[in-house]
Model the fold of this input.
Amino acid sequence: MQRNLIRSPFLAALMSMAAIAHASGDHAGGHDHGDATIGEPGDAARITRTVRVDMTDTMRFTPAQISVQRGETIRFELVNSGQLRHEMTLGTPADLVAHAEQMRQHPEMEHADANAVTVDPGQRGEIVWRFTRAGAVEFACLQPGHFEAGMRGAVQVRGNKS
Done:
């Protein structure tokens, strides 16, 4: 029986994806190495401040530019004041472009990552994130067409706070 399961193309592909995900993971932190360049999931007990971000059907975030200190743990309170589903995903420019392409191919994809939240119309969501490196961290709505329409922003991470 087990031998037949392994021969299944679906299970073989699933096992390959799991092996790749496991191999690329940062086992101590529970996230992949790409996250390290943008920070890490934050501890809700260590939130230094809350930043409210409004998402609208004009394909804009307000504010679109956010400044934080390195080492800060920020609660992003996302408010979808539009009639369309929106999301906020933190990432590198390359990660956001790649993820936007995945979303075009799979528009109903739901996120279970600490760096992203999907918010239905009239609803709220949150991301708690700790910024560990100075520099810019981008964010975008990756719902099909929204990224391309300019629904993007950036977090400028400044200073030497640890």
User: Anything to note?
Assistant: The chain has a mean pLDDT of 80. The CA atoms of residues 147 and 161 lie 32 Å apart. The two ends are 53 Å apart (CA to CA).
